[in-house]
Amino acid sequence: MAADAAVLRGLRVLVVEDSLLVAEVIADTLESCGCTVVGPIGRLERAMPVAREEALSGAVLDVNLAGEPCFPIAWILAERGVPFLFLTGYGDIDALPPEFTTTPVMRKPFVPDKLVGLVSERFR
User: Is the Cβ–Cβ distance between 15 and 60 less than 8 Å?
Assistant: First the structure.
């Protein structure tokens, strides 16, 4: 993890997750690697302006935000050229829009070291 963590130092990562406990684990994991976490944000309507306006190196997006799909956020990020990955605790990977079928998906519960590895791969 140390090599992956070094790559993350200084990155600004948006975390969109509706489960407070999971959001805290993600934020703590990324901050321990030197990232600046933007959020966490748990609702679609609050995350969209942040995705549109903030300077971001990448984003970690929960697919299901209190019953709403995160895809409007993903479309904003894709348009801006900001890399992102999806998190899901459900079998909703088949419901990904066609343009996101190659986007990395991490299943919950996840291992923090694996999240660091995927973020370092995707966001550098």
Answer: yes
51 with 73: CB under 8 angstroms? yes
pTM: 0.93
Phi-psi domain of 109 (left: phi exceeds 0; alpha: psi -120 through 50; beta: other): beta
DSSP-derived letter for residue 78 is H
Which neighbouring-strand residues pair with 12? 36
Alpha carbons 81 and 57: distance in angstroms, whole number: 9
pLDDT by residue (tens digit) across 82-99?
999 999 987 666 678 999
Tell how far CA 82 is from the center of its chain: 11
Domain limits, the chain? 2-123
The class of domain 2-123 in CATH terms is alpha beta
Distance (Å, rounded) from C-alpha 39 to C-alpha 62? Answer: 13
